Amino acid sequence: MPNFGQNGGHWRRKNDSASGAITPRLPTSAILALILWGTISQTSAQQLWTPDDVRQAAVSARHSREIMCIFMVEIGGSGFNPYTPHADSRIVGPGGLSSVGLMPQFRTRGYDDPINPYQVAAYIDSVLDDGGGGNWPYLKSWIDTGRC
Q: For residue 91, which phi and psi values (nearest 5 degrees)?
């Protein structure tokens, strides 16, 4: 079977003996580079938000006391790590947003990253402005009793 081009980092074309078609093949080094790049970019994205960001987002919010309470309940036990996995896999991020609960509303209000503590704090501010504190049933009692 004839090869067109060069080996060693360049595209090779090979005749497909069954159909006679010429098919392109990526060299192994290019495939490995793509896999490595994907892994590095995913790891970098996971390091984007820190516990300090979570705290700063809460204290910068209009409803800072309530949002700090929500963040404390949802991820405070893990040192305010916004990437903390929840017991229910449908729940994500520092605000405890659920795919069957507030996540659809979070997205329809123009937010797109439920891990981003600044987006989550702004969203919770808007929910609390609308009188939606009941979405976090512990919130009022914990604030009234001084737990937050």
A: -100, 130
